[in-house]
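Reminder to self: tokens first, then the designed residues, so the page reads top to bottom the way the pipeline ran.
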């Protein structure tokens, strides 16, 4: 750190020449007096002091930091840390954030989505080490039912749809119905991608408690991402299995842990979350995923199988409009009937659904490979979308409880 006195000396070196000998003598006398006075070091305001993570709630962060310091990192990793610390535009990071690594789940055939995500991460969290994690392509991969099922029942999710509607004051409780739905190929591929990410979390952690940040390629960090995450990590309880950075809230929060962290009962989306090895083990022990993976994770928290927390307000949003430029067709997206506003990006990559079937013929029209819809989908879905309207999934919402969100989520 550079003290303010040192900053002033540097500034004096660049000052214009003194006017006359008297002026020079005055400067010399002033400098001499200053050198004899006690030096009060004040840290330059452009440098943010790192917060300690060795709190009672998160003592394991400190333990991990000590463990990391004891074993040398690869040279390129160390170099990057030095560059980040020296950059005037990037705050100094706590050990928790210095050691945090992220994977971005993205289809290899969609480099445009990965590049967009990289640009957003660079804009708001350039310090974050991240890498492409090739998504499981539901159109091209044979997936085992021991990992993810082929159909799901919406009963448990409907409970939380109604609870959210009551919390929001919506007069639509009679519109939520229990249904049996086929899982789309994209939903199954998404689930397997997250399963593989949990396995990677365990592989990288080894015998440590080092977490992994899992992002989807539409993740859009907020401008205050770094500062908020620092505060959240410092107060996240030690029993955390998952910390949601982005979400859509269904039930009321179970409790407030701090001004930045709440305990979650049931939230939707998997756009961005931190998973600890204990959480990864617990999730993997409960396979198969028996519905959309975000619903399944939420139900695990609701049933007290995992301890889930959330950063409030959310610090990751979703960059794209609902199902516009999306690779995943949701089995419940036509809850109130067909809607032509729902668009899937696979129109650009596949000629037709018949050539590359995503799901069985029982699947709703518009599953991966086609954006067209038919009246036949009215009977399908437990939805997120209001017929005849278009809504941004998440972008621009400032409330931690989605108070401005009009799209009823899955």
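Designed residues (410 positions):
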């Amino acid at each position: 750190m550079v003290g303010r006195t040192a900053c002033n000396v540097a500034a004096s070196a660049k000052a214009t020449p003194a006017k006359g000998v008297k002026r020079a003598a005055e400067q010399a006398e002033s400098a001499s007096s200053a050198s004899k006075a006690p030096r009060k070091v004040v840290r330059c305001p452009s440098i943010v002091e790192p917060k300690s993570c060795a709190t009672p709630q998160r003592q394991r962060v400190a333990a991990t930091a000590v463990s990391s310091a004891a074993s040398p990192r690869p040279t390129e990793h160390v170099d990057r840390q030095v560059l980040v610390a020296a950059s005037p535009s990037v705050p100094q990071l706590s050990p928790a954030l210095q050691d945090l690594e992220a994977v971005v789940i993205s289809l290899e055939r969609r480099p445009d989505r990965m590049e967009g995500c990289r640009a957003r991460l660079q804009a708001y969290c350039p310090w974050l080490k991240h890498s492409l994690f090739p998504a499981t392509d539901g159109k091209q991969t044979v997936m085992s039912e021991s990992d993810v099922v082929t159909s799901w029942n919406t009963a448990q999710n409907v409970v939380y749809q109604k609870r959210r509607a009551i919390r929001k004051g919506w007069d639509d409780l009679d519109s939520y119905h229990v249904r049996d739905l086929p899982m789309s190929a994209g939903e199954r591929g998404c689930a397997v991608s997250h399963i593989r990410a949990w396995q990677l979390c365990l592989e990288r952690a080894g015998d440590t408690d080092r977490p992994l940040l899992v992002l989807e390629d539409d993740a859009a960090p907020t401008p205050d991402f770094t500062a908020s995450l620092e505060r959240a990590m410092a107060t996240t309880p030690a029993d955390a299995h998952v910390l949601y950075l982005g979400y859509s809230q269904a039930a009321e929060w179970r409790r407030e842990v701090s001004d930045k962290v709440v305990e979650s009962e049931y939230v939707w989306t998997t756009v961005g979350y931190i998973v600890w090895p204990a959480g990864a083990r617990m999730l993997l022990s409960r396979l198969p995923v028996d519905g959309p993976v975000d619903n399944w994770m939420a139900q695990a928290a609701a049933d007290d199988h995992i301890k889930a927390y959330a950063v409030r307000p959310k610090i990751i949003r979703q960059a794209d409009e609902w199902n516009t430029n999306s690779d995943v067709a949701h089995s419940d997206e036509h809850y109130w009937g067909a809607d032509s506003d729902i668009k899937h990006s696979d129109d650009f990559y596949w000629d037709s659904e018949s050539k590359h079937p995503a799901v069985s013929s029982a699947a709703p029209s518009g599953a991966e490979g086609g954006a067209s819809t038919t009246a036949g989908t009215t009977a399908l879905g437990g939805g997120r979308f209001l017929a005849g309207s278009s809504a941004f999934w998440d972008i621009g919402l400032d409330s931690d409880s989605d108070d401005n969100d009009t799209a009823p989520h899955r």
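The domain at 56-144+185-318 is CATH 3.90.550 (Spore Coat Polysaccharide Biosynthesis Protein SpsA; Chain A).
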